[in-house]
Amino acid sequence: MTVTTKQVKELRELTGAGILDCKKALEASGGDLEKAKQYLKQRGLAIAAKKKGREAREGLIEAYIHAGSRIGAMVELNCETDFVARTDEFKALAHDIAMQVVAFNPLYIKPEDIPAEVIEQKKAEIRAEYEGSGKPPEVIEKIVENKLEKFYQEVCLLRQPFIKDENTTVEDVITQAIAKLGENVVVRRFVRFELGEPIAR
Question: How confident is the model over 7-34, as a mean pLDDT?
Answer without folding.
Answer: 78
